[in-house]
Amino acid sequence: MTTPSLAAAGPSIYWYLTRSTGAVALLLLTFAIALGVVDVRRWSTPRWPRFLVDSLHRNVSLLAMVFLMLHILTSVLDSFAPISPLDALIPFAGSYRPFWLGLGAVSFDLLLAVTFTSLLRQRMGYASWRAIHWLTYASWPIALLHGFGTGSDVKSTWLLALSIACLAVVLAAVLARTLAGWPENLSRRSAALGGAGIFSLFLLVWLPSGPLGSEWARRSGTPSSLLPHAHGTTTSSGSHR
């Protein structure tokens, strides 16, 4: 439980660890998604054989999971916000920014399903594994929205730039994949381009009035007991909790 003295003392080490591990997890997940979107098998060369590129994709994905679990652990340990371990697994059950925190739980659950089925790939059919593996692509935009919605320093230049860079990388990967072999499977390629465009347009319209707008701490579902500190506690870099 957060006390006024703790909140007034400023961000704890867990606060910084939560932000840093979340940022690293987003970077790694973006890299893994981009590799998957462009289809690592197509980009294999004699110098970079298929097994090497596939191994890179797999290891980056697992490393992203490690940092994601560290992100969750430090969020739970941070005494500022009431976040429990169950909030990381059960979507929309928490009391701190429940919808946006719930999106993080949804993304984590999807990645857990992909990780476990990948470890059991030899025991299940390829079609089933492939269908579940596609959940990875859904987890990335959900994770990005979670970061925008719950990040108390979302207005920080570095974090905003990092998020935009990750979006640009994924959009570039989608564009490269859809243009390769055009116009085969035109309906799928058009759907991919349309989905990426709609998501980007949504962010462009939503961010100024949402996380980048005023009173986002209150509108996002921050408990009333924490609102004075959410507005009044400022880090050395100028971001608000």
Q: Overview of this structure, please?
A:
By secondary structure, this protein is mainly alpha-helical. It is 67% helix and 0% strand. Helix 2 (13-38) runs antiparallel to helix 6, helix 2 (13-38) runs parallel beside helix 7 (157-179) and helix 7 (157-179) runs antiparallel to helix 8. The chain is globular, with a radius of gyration of 19 Å. The model is unreliable at 1-9 and 231-241 (pLDDT under 50).
For this entry, give a set of tags.
241 residues; 10 helices; mainly alpha
Layout of helices and strands, plus pairs?
Elements: H1 4-8, H2 13-38, H3 50-77, H4 98-119, H5 126-133, H6 135-150, H7 157-179, H8 186-209, H9 216-219, H10 227-232
Radius of gyration (CA) equals 19 Å
Question: How many DSSP helices?
Answer: 10
Which overall shape is indicated by the principal axes computed on the Cα atoms?
A: globular
Main sheet characteristics: none
Total E-strand runs: 0
Class computed from helices, strands and strand pairing:
mainly alpha
Strand content bin: under 5%
Taken in chain order, the helices and strands follow as HHHHHHHHHH
Query: Percent range for helical residues?
Result: 55-70%
Poorly predicted regions = 1-9, 231-241
Mean pLDDT: 84
- How widely separated are the two ends? 16 Å
